[in-house]
Amino acid sequence: MRHLELDGVPALSRIGLGTWQFGSREWGYGSEYASVEAARIVRRSLEFGVTLIDTAEIYGFGRSERIVGAAVGADRERVFLATKIFPVFPVAAVVRRRAAGSARRLGVRRLDLYQVHQPNPLVRDRTTMRGMRELQDRGVVGEVGVSNYSLGRWQAAEKELGHRVLSNQVSYSLADRRAELDLIPYAAATGRVVVAYSPLSRGFLSTRYGPDRRPVNAVRRRGLFSRESLERAQGLFATLREVADAHQATPAQVALAWVIRHPNVVAIVGASSADQAAANAEAADLDLSPDEIAALTEAASIFRPV
């Protein structure tokens, strides 16, 4: 496993574990997944060098945090735990209270990274970041992050916090390259981190699906997985398979390696099984040539998703 090293931050695995699926009904994985397989996924990820585990209070309404905390157990010091506040009314007092709730569910005294899940259109970041700063001063929170923030709002949040907001968690993949416009360059120039969620576009880039083989669960039912999008993606899928064959890898591993080619980008990936978690982690060691990166980028540029 390769790691991203920044001043004052424990080494972050370039591939992290995303845990939205843990305890969340919309993925349709069932009770056995939540009660048994989820813990196996955490354990296998740790065996393969994953240190970054990301969850949120909204995932399964707290159940994901409980599953993660129990699975990490005695290996707490090996893990960089990240969670997120759902910002319904993110004033300072609420931020402090919700952080305490997340720490309790995770079974920890300190949240390594506490993130604002999305910008609140009515509540600006001044009061939110005051709460975050107080949590840092008390040692409850190590680093502060945001999610789904524009560059301007990310910078405004840093101004209100009074120091760095370490990370911005955003969608980034071969099917969604918006972060390349300004977020990734800013992270590279300032020593910040872009945490790429959905780096496989919820499994779209695994190339398992096609116009006649579409997923049925609620998370993947529409949009990118429409028949038209899957038809348009055949050129991109063919390039992914070609590069994967050259490396004896999977298309999903190639898509992940493409995302983390940027020095200040880490990717968090969900998994439906422990074996899939191991395969995701192995993508961190896949070296793509400049020609392969260019071919993938060109194929992604041609693809126009619905």
Architecture blueprint of SSEs:
Layout: E1 3-6, E2 9-13, E3 15-18, H1 31-47, E4 52-54, H2 63-72, E5 80-85, H3 92-106, E6 111-116, H4 125-137, E7 141-147, H5 151-161, E8 167-171, H6 183-190, E9 193-197, H7 227-232, H8 234-247, H9 251-259, E10 265-269, H10 274-282, H11 290-302
Parallel strand pairs: 3-4, 3-10, 4-5, 5-6, 6-7, 7-8, 8-9, 9-10
Antiparallel strand pairs: 1-2
Explain what this protein looks like in three dimensions.
It is a single chain. The longest helix is centred in the first third of the chain and has 17 residues. Helix content is 41%, strand content 16%. The strands form 2 sheets. An 8-stranded parallel β-barrel has the order 3-4-5-6-7-8-9-10, surrounded by 4 helices. A two-stranded antiparallel ribbon has the order 1-2. It has one domain: Alpha-Beta Barrel (TIM Barrel). It contains 11 helices and 10 strands. The protein has 306 residues and is α/β, with parallel strands linked by helices. The mean pLDDT is 91. 46% of the residues are buried.
Mean pLDDT, all residues: 91
Tally of domains:
1
Large-scale geometry = globular
Low-confidence stretches: none
Radius of gyration from CA coordinates: 19 Å
Classify the beta-strand content into a percent band: 15-25%
The CATH homologous superfamily is named: NADP-dependent oxidoreductase domain
* Residues in helix, %: 40-55%
**Biggest beta sheet attributes:** 8 strands, parallel, barrel
| Secondary structure: number of strands | 10
How far apart are the termini? Answer: 34 Å
Please list the strands of the largest sheet in the order they lie side by side. Answer: 3-4-5-6-7-8-9-10
Structural class: alpha/beta
CATH-assigned fold name:
TIM Barrel
CATH top level class name = Alpha Beta
Q: What's the CATH architecture?
A: Alpha-Beta Barrel
